[in-house]
Amino acid sequence: MSGQGSGGNVIAAICSFFIPGLGQLVQGRIMVALAFFIVATVSYALSVTVILIFMWPIGAIAHIWSIISAAKYNGTSG
């Protein structure tokens, strides 16, 4: 991927919009992608239960963070 705002980052952000972490996976950041996916999907799944209904904001925050992280990734380490 090129720099921030490149076409690749836009595609990655769109991917993360549909599935949390997919944009990071497209960018080659496997561990970050796995973390976003697990946190968001587990939080969403737990919010379906009546007991842990308060978990959806955590999933929503992780999902939005995933989208922003994919859009702002610049590919440099440091």
Number of helices: 4
Poorly predicted spans: none
Structural class: mainly alpha
Shape: elongated
Strand content: under 5%
The N- to C-terminal Cα distance equals: 16 Å
Succession of helices and strands:
HHHH
Transmembrane segments: 6-26, 33-56
Keywords: Membrane, Transmembrane, Transmembrane helix
Task: Describe what you observe in this structure.
This protein has one domain. Helices cover 68% and strands 0% of the residues. The protein contains four helices and no strands. The longest helix is centred in the middle third of the chain and has 19 residues. Keywords: Membrane, Transmembrane, Transmembrane helix.
Outline the secondary-structure elements.
Layout: H1 7-18, H2 22-26, H3 30-48, H4 56-72
Helix pairs in contact: 1-4, 3-4
Brief characterization of the structure:
With 78 residues, this protein is mostly helical. It has helices at 7-18, 22-26, 30-48, 56-72. The chain crosses the membrane at residues 6-26, 33-56.
Q: What are its keywords?
A:
single chain, membrane, transmembrane helix, 68% helix, transmembrane, 78 residues, mainly alpha
